[in-house]
Amino acid sequence: MSDSDSDLDVGRHETLLKSIKDIGKATKKPKRLSPKKSKPGKVDVSELVSSIHSTRNLNDVKKQIEVPVKKKKVKTLSAPLHRRAKDRIESAIAYRETNKELKQWDPIVFANRAAEQLVFPLDREDTMKVETGAEKAQSFKPRTPLEIQIAEVLNNSKSNLKNSDLYTESEKEIIKAMSLKEAREKCAQLQKMRALMSYREAKYKQQKKIKSKQFHRLKKRQKRRQILKEFEELMTRDPEAAKEKLQELEKDRALERASLKHRGSNKWNKEIRQFASRNPELRKIMEEHLRFGRELKRKYGEKLGDADSASESSGGEDEPGTSEKKLTNEEILKIAAEEAAKSDPSKEKLIRKASENPWLRSELSKIREKRKKNSTKNSISAKNIDDIIDNDESNFLKIQTTEVNEVPVELIDKMEEVDGMETQADFLAAAFEDDDVVADFEAEKEAVEANEKPQNIDLTLHGWGDWTGPGITDRKKDKFIVKAPEQKRRDKNRIGVIIRETADKSIEKFQPKIVPFPFTKASDFEAYIQQPIGRDWNTELTHVKLIKPSVVTQAGRIIRPLDKEAVIKERMVKEMSSSEDEY
Fold it and tell me: Where is this region: Disordered (predicted)?
C-alpha cells in the first residue's frame, strides 16, 4: 500500500468511529444547501487574460464581460404651475416665516401694552450713570448738516489734538523742520500757551458760575470801558478808520431797528415758529436772525434797562460813569424821537435837534411834563363827571308822599317779617346779580323742546302733475304734508325740570362700547372711573400717580426702533436671573 492509501484509510476509520458513537443520539434534520451568489469583487487583468485560450472564444469572453444596461423610461415634463398658484404658495411660505419671526416680539408688545407708563426712547441710558467727555465724544454721531460739516472739517484738519498725543500733526511737522534748540523752545512755548489756555478756561468757568448781579454788572462796565478806550485810541491813531467803524455800527443799528426779525415777540417770528419744527429752512432763518441779534447786542453792549439800573446802582463812581451816562442819554433821545414820529411829526424835529444840541434838551423835559399834566387832568375830569352824575337831582324820580300819623301794631309785625324776607331776597339777588339763571334755564328748555319736537313730513313731489309750455299759467299747488302727531311732554307743567325724550347723540362718542384694555369686567372699569383724582381727596403722591400720562417723550431725543439682538439678550439675562432667584 502506498502512503496515500494509508491516509484515506485512517480518515475513513475515524468517520466510522464517529458514526458508531452517534447511533444513540437524535438525528439532525438534513440541511438544504442552495447555491449562493458570490460577492462581487475586483477582477484582475491576469484573470481575464487567463480565461482567453484562443482567438476563437474572444467574442464569448466579451459577451460575459459586458454589463447589461437597463433602458430608462423617458418621462415627459409636467406643466409648470400657474402664476397665481405659484404666488399663493410663495406668500403662504413667506407668511409662515414672518409670523415665526414676529412671535419673538410678542412678550415685549404685551409688556408695553400692560405698562402703566411708557417713557420714550425705550433704549435710553441709565440716568445715574456719569459719562465722561471722552465717552460722549466716541458715541457722538453728527446728524444735522452743520454737525456733519464741522465733523468733516475736524477730521481733515491737522490741528486736532488727541488725548493720547502731546502735539498735533501740524505742530509735529513744524518741530521736525526745526533744529534741536529751536524745537525745545517751541515745545516750551506750546506748553506755556496750553497752560495759559487751561487757566483762562477754568477762570471763565468759575466766573460763569457766579450768580452775583453786582459782579456781572461790574464786568460789563469794565468791558464797555475797554471798548470805549479802544475806540478813542483808534480815533487818535486813525480818524478815518474810526469814522468808518462808527458808520458801520450805525448801519447795523438801523438795519436791526428796521427789521427786528431777530426778536421773538413780533408777528413774523410767531408765525414762523409754528412751522419751524417741520421745516429745516425756516429753522435756519430763525437761527440766523437770532444770531444776528445777539451779535448786535454784543457790539452795542448791554440793553437800555441794564444801563439805567447800572447808573442807578453805581452812584459813587467818578469819571467812567460820565461816558456811560452820555451813551444812555443818546439812546433815550433816539427812542423818544421814534415815539414822537408815531404820535406827532412836529415834535420829532425838536427831539432830533435836542439829540444834536445839548442846549435844547430842556425843551424835551418840558414836553414830558406837559404830557404828565394832561394825563392827570384827564383822570381828574373823569372822576368829576362820575361825581356830578351821582349828585345831580334831575337824574332821580320825584314821587309825592303822604304823611302817616299812626301805624297799627299788626302792620308793624308784618313789616318786620317782610323786611327779613327782603334781606334774604337781597342776598340772593346780590349773589346772582350778573346771572339771569331763570331766563337762561327757560331758554335752554325751549331749545330742547324745539329740537325734540316731531317734524312734519313733506311728501310733495316737485314737478309732478305740472304742465309746461307756451300759454300755460302757473298754478300754486297745495303741498302734501303729513303732520306729525302731537306728543305730550312729561316736563310741560314742571318748573325747573328738563326731561329729555330722546337720547343725546353728542355723548355717544364718550360711551365705551366694550370694556377697554386692560380691564376684563365692567364693574372694575366703573370703579376705576368713579375714583376721584383731585388733590382734595388724595395725597399729593397718589394724585401725581393717578394723573401721570400713559406716554412720555423726552425732548430732543431720537426715538429709534428697538434693537432685536439687544432686546433678546436683555430678556435672556432677566430669565436667567429669575431662575437663579427661584433656586
Answer: 20-47, 302-331
With H, G, I as helix, E, B as strand and everything else as coil, classify residue 221.
helix
**What is the per-residue pLDDT for 439?**
80
Q: What is the 3-state secondary structure (H, E, C) of 119-186?
A: EECCCCCCCCCCCCHHHHHHHCCCCCHHHHHHHHHHHHCCCCCCCCCCCCHHHHHHHHCCCHHHHHHH
Give the three cell numbers for residue 498.
Answer: 328738563
Identify the pLDDT of residue 258.
Answer: 63
Rg over alpha carbons for the chain, rounded to the nearest Å, is 55
Q: How far is CA 420 from CA 103, 173, 255, 423, in A?
A: 79, 105, 73, 5
Q: Is the pTM of this model over 0.70?
A: no
Phi, psi of 552 (to 5 degrees): -125, 130
Place of cell 448801519: 251
Contact assessment for residue 107 and residue 562, using Cβ atoms and an 8 Å cutoff: no
204 three-state secondary structure: helix
Give CA separation, 548 vs 111, 407, 533, 541, 552, in Å. 18, 71, 11, 11, 9
Q: Is 53 helix (H, G, I), strand (E, B) or coil?
A: coil
Beta carbons within 8 Å of 337's beta carbon, 6+ residues apart: 348, 351, 352, 355
Is a pLDDT exceeding 70 seen at residue 391?
no
pLDDT, tens only, 547-578: 999 899 988 888 888 888 888 788 788 788 77
pLDDT for res 97: 94
Among the ranges given (197-201, 261-265, 291-295), the one the predictor scored with the smallest mean pLDDT: 261-265
Per-residue pLDDT reduced to its tens digit, 226-284: 878 888 888 888 888 888 877 887 777 777 666 655 455 666 677 777 767 677 777 77
Q: Which residue has the cell 439682538?
A: 565
Burial of 354 (0-12, 13-18, 19+ CB in 10 A): buried
What is the DSSP annotation of 344-413? -HHHHHHHHHHHH-GGGHHHHHHHHHHHHHHHHHHHHHHHHHHHHHHH-GGGS--------S---HHHHH
Residues 392, 389: Cα–Cα separation, whole Å: 5
